[in-house]
Design brief:
Largest sheet: 10 strands, mixed
Number of helices: 15
Strand order of the largest sheet: 7-6-5-4-3-2-1-8-9-10
Oligomer: single chain
Helix content: 25-40%
Number of strands: 16
């Protein structure tokens, strides 16, 4: 894909402050001076509205509200969240949720914001150790119960380190029993960019990573849970065909490619976890900021060890910030990579639904954003890039068949079947039943 003008994802760190102090978070490793300086940065509501307006001008499909803990500044960001929604932008929120109350719950429900909730461990002492907050597990469970009571959807994320990997399976069982979860993010821990060597004892070994993958496969087999990850895996880190089916190519680095991050000051980074600032969204032209991130998308940061790998364009060498805190280089090999697994030994079989030439499809409401070339079309959180001609076809054909597409684009049934599948997966069209 060529460089886009409007990145579809924006991460907005609305505050560096948090009521938890998790060992795997950059907040835990901040120096006293940094903490004191951030305490004096108390921004008014209008500051957030100014950043929100600048983000809106860049036409994102989704804005991820993050922190710190976003609910600490709920009253100050509420109007900004409303503004994002008014501009038809999908909003999500990363949170520990423990500050939720009836008012916030009602607002989340009204806004259709399904929180992405950090859940360290089902073992109380381990949860308290990770969060550095006594009683944190009880507070998290109490807050999740508020979501359940108000029928608000949520997604849980377990960051796995040496501190809690021994409790991962029991945590999954606990969550399935209590909330009957159908999906779960299980994310390998990564070293915060500002952490010292004291953090390294929490990093997973390759053996640990294999155990993590095996537990994920087991969770899917036993409970039917859809397991995902918040951090991309290098394909050579995957230890079985079943793990490959679960994680292989499902997530790759998007920093500076299709996403960027804005902090509470308005500073812009390619990745929320990275430290390099490329400009300020309040004072600098975004086009210039985006162009300055070119190294994130031109392949120059893919590790040299990956150069001869056939999967490098799909894998991109894993996470570009993973090894950076250790060796100070974004071109370094992801610490979870295992070069002994090269060439990639597993393959993913694409399961393609076969449609009939006479099947009738109808378009659903979608949003179209003009790009440098073609358009980005989206339905809620999902999006797809299409040509001018495809957008014109969709705009002028509320109902159509595969044969219509084949004739309009002079392509065969196999190609059209693939395109139809992509449009259905994105929510742009649906097959009309009974016709």
């Amino acid at each position: 894909m060529s460089t886009i003008q409007y990145p579809p994802f924006a991460h907005w760190e609305v505050t560096p402050e948090c009521n938890h102090n998790c060992i795997h978070c950059y907040n835990y490793w901040r120096k006293d001076k940094e903490i004191q300086e951030s305490m004096y940065k108390v921004y008014p509501e209008n500051h957030y509205l100014s950043i929100a307006q600048k983000i809106i001008e860049q036409k994102p499909n989704t804005v991820v509200i993050t922190g710190g803990e976003p609910l600490l500044v709920y009253r100050k960001i509420k109007s900004s969240l409303l503004l994002l929604k008014e501009n038809e932008i999908h909003v999500t929120m990363n949170t520990n949720l423990t500050l939720i109350n009836h008012e916030i719950a009602e607002f989340l429900k009204e806004m259709h914001i399904a929180p992405f909730v950090s859940f360290p461990c089902s073992e109380e002492s381990v949860c308290d150790f990770i969060t550095n907050k006594k009683g944190s597990l009880k507070n998290i469970l109490k807050s999740l119960d508020v979501l359940v009571l108000n029928q608000i959807g949520f997604t849980l994320n377990v960051v796995v380190s040496k501190a809690n990997i021994s409790y991962l399976w029991s945590t999954i069982c606990f969550l399935k029993e209590r909330y009957n979860i159908r999906g779960l993010f299980i994310t390998r821990v990564a070293k915060p960019v500002n952490s010292s060597q004291l953090f390294d004892k929490y990093l997973l070994s390759y053996k640990d990573l294999c155990e993590l993958q095996d537990i994920c496969v087991k969770a899917q087999k036993v409970y039917g849970i859809n397991i995902q990850t918040g951090c991309p895996y290098p394909l050579c880190a995957i230890n079985s065909q079943e793990s490959f089916d679960m994680f292989g190519g499902k997530k790759s680095c998007t920093g500076g490619i299709t996403s960027y991050a804005v902090d509470f000051d308005g500073n812009v980074k390619a990745c929320p976890r990275d430290s390099e600032i490329y400009g300020n969204i309040l004072t600098d032209a975004f086009e210039k900021i985006w162009d300055s991130m070119i190294a994130w998308r031109n392949g120059i940061q893919i590790p040299i060890e990956c150069e001869n790998c056939d999967a490098k364009n799909l894998c991109k060498g894993g996470c570009r910030v993973d090894a950076f805190p250790i060796v100070g280089n974004r071109c370094s090999l992801d610490t979870s990579a295992n070069l002994n697994n090269l060439p990639i030994r597993y393959k993913k079989e694409r399961k393609i639904i076969q449609y009939n030439v006479s099947d009738i499809f109808e378009t659903k409401p979608y949003k179209a954003i003009a790009e440098k070339s073609g358009y980005r079309i989206s339905h809620e959180a999902k999006f797809l890039y299409v040509t001018d001609k495809m957008l014109d076809f969709l705009a002028n054909n509320n109902n159509f068949t595969m044969l219509d597409l084949m004739q309009s684009f002079s392509v065969n049934q196999i190609t059209v079947n693939y395109v139809i599948g992509k449009l259905i997966d994105t929510g742009i069209i649906k097959r009309k039943v009974g016709e």
